Structures are given as C-alpha cells and as structure tokens.
Amino acid sequence: MASSPCGNSNFDSGLEIKTRSVEQTLIPLVSQITTLINHKDKPKKSERTLAAIHRVGQAVSVAVGRFVAVGEAIATENQELKDEMGQACFEARRAGDAIAQLTDVGSALPSQLDGRVTVFSDRTAMVKAARLLLSSVTKVLVLADRIVIKQIITSRNKVLVTLDHLERVSTFQEFVQIFSQFGNEMVEFAHLTGDRQNDLKDEKKKARMAAARAVLEKCTMMLLTASKTCLRHPDCESARINKDAVFHRMRCALEQVIEIVTEARCSGENRILPASIYNGIKEFKSGVECLRENLYSLSPQSMSSQLEALVERTEDFTDSAYTSHEQRQAILGLCQLARQDTQQLVHAWVEAQSVHAKEATKDMEVAILKTCQSVSDLRRELHKVAVGRASDLLKVHGEQLPLRALKAAGAEGNLEEVAEYSRTLTEQKEQLVETCRLLCHVSGTEPLEITCIHAEETFHVIGPQIISAAQTLALHPSSKIAKENLEVFCEAWESQLCDMALLLREINDVFEGRRGDKRPYLSLPRPGKHLANMKTAKAVKLDAEEQTSMAKLGLELRLLSSDVDTEVEKWEDQEHEIVRQSQSLASMAYNMYLFTRGEGLLKTTLDLFHQAEVLSEEGLQLCSSLRTFSSQLVDEEKTVVMTEMEKLLALCQQLQMGAKTPVQGKTATFQKVDSSIQATRSILSVVLSLLPFCNKLNRKYKSERNSLSSPQDWRERQDASTPVKEEGALNSKNSNGFGVKSLEQHMAGLNLLESK
Asked: Which of 189, 321, 724, 727 shows a CA-CA span of 20 to 30 A to 675?
C-alpha cells in the first residue's frame, strides 16, 4: 500500500490515469495515507506520535470533504455523470470519515485507547479505508476529466458547424459575420486543447496534439484569405482548389484532436509510425547486449535478419539523389562493417553454444563490443548526413528566391513564369519532404518522429497551395486580396522552415544528450475551483489586423529568445551574472511567446503584464551588471557597451511603467499587450547585440590579464570589475539564420485569436 497509485496507471479497475493533473492531485493524498499505514507499531506511543497521527488523519478527512464538495458540484452541472459521480463522492466521504475515526487518537491517553478500534489496533481496517479512499478519489478525478473531454468535443462540434457555414457563404457581409463567430469558437477550442496538450502524460499523444493544433493555427489565416479570394473571384478554378484544400486540412486536424482526447481507434491512432533507423539500431544493440546474460535469448538467424532489415532502411539515404558520393560510400562501408562484426559475433556465439557455455565467452564479449560500436558509428554517420543536409537546405531556402519570383510573376500576370517557378518550388518541396523523412530516421524520440512527419506533411501540402494561390494572382494581377492570399501561404511555408530549424536543434540536443525537462502545466481545475468557473472567462476578440500584429511579435520573441540562449551557451562561465540574467530574460520572453499561442503558464492578460514587470526588473539588474563590466574597458569599448546599456535601461523602464499602468476596455488592453511584447522584443534585440560583443571583450581582457598585465595591473582590474570568462559569439543582432520575416505572420489564426 505504500506504493503510489500514480506509478501504476491502472490503480483501480478501468481507471487509467492519463493526465498529469489527476496524477499530481493524487500524490499528496497518497503520501499522507502512506504515512498513516507505515507508522512504526511500537508498544508505547508517545503523545507526540499520537498527535502527529491524529493531525494527519484529520487533514485527510478535511481535504476529502472539500474535494467531495467540488465533485458534487460537478455532478450537479453534468447530469449524465450524476449517478457515477455521486457514488464515487459517497465512497470517498465514507472512507475519509473512517480514516478520521481510526486516527482520532490525538487527545487520548495511551491507556484510554484500549478496547477502541484505531489505526493501532486494526491495521487491516486502515488499509481497507485507504484503498477505498484512493479508489473513489481517483474515480472522481477521472470522471471530472471526462467533463474536460466533453467540453473539447462540444467546442469542436461548434467549430465544425460554423466551418460548414463558412464554406457555403456567398457574400462578403455574411462571411465577415460568420468568420467573427468562428474566431470566437476557435479561441475557446484553442485554450481547451492547449491545456489538454500540456496535461497529457503520454509524450506521443502530446506531440500529435501539438501537430494538429499547429495545423489549425496556420490554417485559420489561410482560411480567411482563401475564402475572401474565392468570394472575390467565384469563377476562378485555382482559387476554389486553394480554398478547398484549406477547409479539408482544418477538418482533418479537428478530427485528429478528437481522436487523441477520446482515444478513438481511428486512422490516426492506428497509423503506425514508419520504422526509424534510430529505433532499429536501439533494438538491435539491446538484443546483442542481452547475449551477455542469456546465450539463448534469440537465434543467430533472427539477429542477422534484424541487421539486414536495419541496413535496408538506410536505402532512404543511399538511394537519394541528394546524397553525395562520399556520404553514400561512407554509409555503405559502415553497413558492410556492421555485417562483418555481426558475422564474427554469430560465429563466436555458435561456438559458445556448442560447448554449452552458460555465459558469454571472451571472444563473444569482444565481438559484442565491436558489433555495438559499428552500428553506433553507422547511426552517427546517418545523423551527420541528415542534419547536415537539413542545415544546408535551410541556408539555401532562407533566401526564399522561388517565393519572391512567384510573387513577382503573379503580380505581373505572367502565367509562364509562374509555371516555371512553380516547378522550382516543387523541386524544393521534394527536397524538404525527403529531408524530413531522413530526420525522422535519426530523431531519437517518438515525439520528435511525429514532429518530423508533421513537417513532411506540411511541406507536401503547402507547396501546391502556394502554386494555386500564385496562379490565381497571375489570372487576376490587380486583385489585392489574391496578392494577400499568396503572401499568407508563402509566410506559412517560411514559418515551417523556422519550425524545421527548431526541430533540428532539438534532434541535435537529443543526440548529444542535452535535452532538458519542460515545466508541465496542469489543466485540471485547481483546488477550490470547479468547471463552472470556466464559463465566466470570456476571451477578448481581436480583429484581423490585431491578429496579424500579434503573430508577428510572438514569433519574433520565439526567435530572439532562442538566439539569446544560443549566445549564452558560448560563455565559459555559465554562472556569470550577465549569463544568468540573459538566460532569465530569454526564458520569460519565451513564456510571453507561448501566451500569444494560447499555451504555457501565462493564461490571462494579467499574467502577461505581471511577467512583463518581472522581466523589466531582471533587465534593470542586467544593466547594473553591464555597468560593472564596462568599468574594466578602455574608452571606445566602454562607450559602445554603455551606449547599448543606456538603450536597454530606457526600454526596461518603459516596459515597467507600461506594465504597471492600469487600463480598461478591449482596445486599451490589446494595446497594452501589444506594447508589452514590442518592448520585450526590443529588449531582447539589445541583449542579443551585447552578448557577443561582451563575450569577445571579456575573452580579450582575460587573455591580457593572464599573459601581458603585471600583477599590479591585474589586481587593479580585479578590484574594479566583476570577473568574467567568456568565449566566441555571433556578430549581429539579426542572427536568425533565415530572417524573422520568414516566421512573422504565419500564425495569424489561433496564435492571435487566442491572445486575450
């Protein structure tokens, strides 16, 4: 009983804990009950022991009473669960009362406990009550979780109905009215699914949910412009094709979300991930290493077959027209080496079996090590090829030459050039699709595999949509809405390139063992609140211009915070004040970016404004550190640092004042959100320009102190400054690889609609 049910997902029959919020709610209760069950059964109980047990028992009883009150309130609001919830609440209350009675020993003398049924005299009764309590509380939580699922389904159904209406409208006026309603419904759906995504325990489901929500985010703005283009040019076939593709993709994404939350065994859930080389190598090595303990765990034939299946998967690399001759030869050579080492292992293995050895012989041990090393070398080479190709493609496609040419040709009404550059874009699309497939092979985790598949599908779908939008513009070159529509699809392509760059960084982090844990957000209502409270929260509606503006700013924050993190990693002394404060600023800016997506820990505008205030204070601390750092510099260098520091100081003060200024009304609130994020963006830009410069200077002065300066000079410098030891840096604040504009506007759908 001492073990936590949270460790066992099937604690009670039919009750599987699938969300972190349910699990985290149970953990304190399990801890308290474990304390009661596992107390030492000594003949003499001190007054302190009795008081402690009484206190814990009463605390459990009071907590259960409050918990049951919330459960009963939920049951009242949801008649379809009333009976089940009522029974679970009844059992929980009964178990809580039993525990309170069994632990009612605090005021009694040891002699007065004789003859009474207590936790000391009847441990079985305590165990029984504890089991009943945990079972009933878990059931209440799982039933409450069903309400969350029901809310998501209901929200999805409303979105689908409005989506059908949008698809059938025939006038601009009708479209504007219905799209306004659609925007509000997508706000609700985005918040519900965002909370659910962050709450899921299964990382694979979480990744699938993130992929589906990303589609909805990007498609919302596409739907707006594609529909407007179709209304403006109703007889244009390419405009209709463009619009139909967006509606189809949105419906598929909505369906995928429901499959995940309801665990429906539909096409999405049953679809098996393509066998990746990473997993194949992992399973192969595991089987090889198991031979150390059991020579008969598998047959030599099965091991050879497993390796051949693994080698066959490398054909995705070797058969590619984009793999260089040197890379192809290196992969084939490593595959052959793995075959040879495996054959030697099989030979040593058969010999060991022939003499009835009980464990791996010395020859086998050597062969096992060589085989594992050869497949590890193969994995390293494949990773190098996939990541290298992706990096090269991102650099080449960062200039967006085909997209620019398509826009220009479309605006000139030149159908021939549109066709020519469409072929170029299609070739780029095929390169990116294949590269995503290779990245999937080496991604290292199932969630990253799912993200790679999502990227592959996105490039595959958006490429033809850009072409149809360009064709529409070429047929109607004076149409502003057709031009805007093409721009939106191009931005979606550019943003996917940015997402691919972030994906690449995560894959590298996993490969190099640098993957960090993310702070979870729990979607279950907090203690003292029940689901009725959710009805009172109303999101502020944003118009299209506000949505576009928010998407741009949010995505810039994501890029800038990522670039600051990259710069900070280059410093030797990770405990330096400038490093720590810059990391803190980047982390808070990333939280603000998540807010623009309806995700993360900042759920309301008040949360955002508080974060902005804290960020400004941290920025002011960084100014102080920079002033101290500048005291060791010579005139020209000091002037540069101080000039940038003054900019940073002014921006932090501006953000601080703005965050503390109260506002009322929708427009004023949005303006305050907008100005807070803009100021944060400017702060990060200054920090990003300062980090490499300070790093370079610090390395320079460190070198001088160590090799050129006299002891007296060194001592004087030390007295006048904070020690800093850094290295290397980027050389400009605009170090985003392929530009901020490539990511700025593509999420003008949910990213913006969700912003409150």
From this structure: 189
Query: Which amino acid, one-letter code, is at 512?
Result: E
Task: Kindly write down the DSSP assignment for every residue of 451-497, as one continuous string.
Answer: HHHHHHHHHHHHHHHHHHHHHHHHHSTT-HHHHHHHHHHHHHHHHHH
DSSP state of 314: T
**Average pLDDT, whole number, for the chain?**
78
CA distance 379 to 373: 10
**3-state secondary structure labels for all residues of 218-287:** HHHHHHHHHHHHHHHCCCCHHHHHHHHHHHHHHHHHHHHHHHHHHCCCCHHHHCCCCCCHHHHHHHHHHH
Q: How far is residue 500's CA from residue 378's CA, in Å, rounded to a whole number?
A: 24
Which two structure tokens, joined as six digits, stand for 422?
Answer: 């469409």
Locate 582 and state its tokens. Answer: 């810059």
- Contact status, residue 281 vs residue 201, Cβ threshold 8 Å: no
pLDDT tens track for 226-278: 999 999 999 999 999 999 999 999 999 999 999 998 886 544 444 556 678 88
User: Which residue in this structure is represented by tokens 């741009």?
Assistant: 552
Contact criterion met (CB below 8 Å) for 138 and 5? yes
pLDDT at 594 > cutoff 80: no
pTM of the model: 0.63
- Report how far apart, in Å, the C-alpha atoms of 137 and of each of 25, 72, 469, 532 are: 10, 12, 55, 20
**Run of H or E including 664:** none
Residue indicated by tokens 């599908």: 457
Name the E strands within 112-185: none
Name residue, tokens 């590890």.
376
Given a contact cutoff of 8 angstroms between Cβ atoms, the answer to whether 371 and 340 are in contact is no
CB 371 within 8 A of CB 288: yes
Q: SS3 of 733, please?
A: coil
Give the C-alpha separation, 389 to 494, whole Å: 18
Cβ neighbours for 650, distance < 8 A, ≥ 6 positions apart: none
Q: What is the pLDDT of residue 484?
A: 93
State the Cα–Cα distance between residues 276 and 280, nearest whole angstrom: 6
Residue 147 three-state SS: helix
What's the gap between Cα 252 and its chain centre? 21
Average pLDDT of the segment spanning 288-315: 85
What does 682-720 look like in DSSP terms, one character per residue? HHHHHHHHHHHHHHHHHHHHHHHHHHTS-HHHHHHHHHH
475, 236 Cβ separation under 8 angstroms = yes
Q: At what angle do helices 172-199 and 123-168 cross, to 10 degrees?
A: 160
Q: Are 90 and 128 in contact (CB under 8 A)?
A: no
Is residue 17 within 8 A of residue 6, CB to CB? The reply is: yes
* CA separation for the pair 749, 214 (Å, rounded): 10
Name the burial class of residue 355, with classes exposed (0-12), middle (13-18) and buried (19+) by CB atoms within 10 angstroms of its CB.
exposed
Q: Could you tell me if 591 and 585 are in contact, meaning their C-beta atoms sit under 8 angstroms apart?
A: no
Q: What DSSP state is assigned to residue 571?
A: -
Alpha helices in 9-46 (DSSP H): 20-37
On the 0-12 / 13-18 / 19+ scale of CB atoms within 10 A, 49 is middle
The helix (H) or strand (E) run that includes residue 155 is helix 123-168
| Cα–Cα distance measured from residue 158 to residue 4, given in angstroms and rounded to the nearest whole number | 40
DSSP helix/strand/coil, 15: strand
Residue 121 has pLDDT above 70, yes or no: no
Q: What is the DSSP letter of 113?
A: G
- Residue 361, sorted as left (phi over 0), alpha (psi -120 to 50) or beta, turns out to be beta
Rg of the chain in Å (alpha carbons): 31
As to burial, measured by CB atoms within 10 angstroms (0-12 exposed, 13-18 middle, 19+ buried), residue 88 is buried
Q: What is the pLDDT of residue 386?
A: 94
Residue 187 identity (one-letter amino acid): V
